[in-house]
Design brief:
Elements lengths: L12 E2 L5 E3 L3 E2 L7 E2 L1 H33 L10 H31 L8 H4 L1
Antiparallel strand pairs: 1-2, 3-4
């Protein structure tokens, strides 16, 4: 079986008695649909999952903040003007985070390639 990311062979796992118990690889989500080798799992997939979890957690907290700020807001009340602006800006941030989540994950996948010249620390 081939790794969907590097196209190398999927690692076989053996127990202490030398009996193979697994040869189906690791789940490559969210990087790709399919199975990957242990090296790609450790160096690409898990970092991708960490980024995904971090961004989704941030989005969740931003949505909670929008809910809090939106309570009791009216369109006509002048004193609510700044709160309405803050809510609008937070919604824009949420939209951008959701829009670029997949791009961040794709960058992680690309940075793992031998021919890639992407430094994720400067991009993310």
């Amino acid at each position: 079986m081939k790794c969907i990311l590097c196209e190398g062979e999927i690692d076989k796992k053996y127990n202490d008695d030398g009996v193979m118990y697994w040869d189906q690889g690791e789940n490559a989500q969210p990087i790709a649909d399919g199975q990957c080798c242990l090296k790609c799992n450790n160096h690409v997939v898990i970092p991708g999952r960490v980024v995904q979890f971090t961004v989704l957690n941030k989005i969740s907290k931003l949505k909670e903040r929008v809910k809090e700020l939106s309570k009791g807001l009216t369109r006509t009340e002048p004193k609510h003007r700044n709160k309405r602006r803050n809510v609008a800006l937070l919604k824009d941030v949420i939209d951008l985070e959701e829009k670029y989540l997949d791009k961040k994950i794709q960058l992680i996948a690309l940075s793992s390639r031998d021919d890639a010249e992407v430094d994720l620390k400067t991009v993310l």
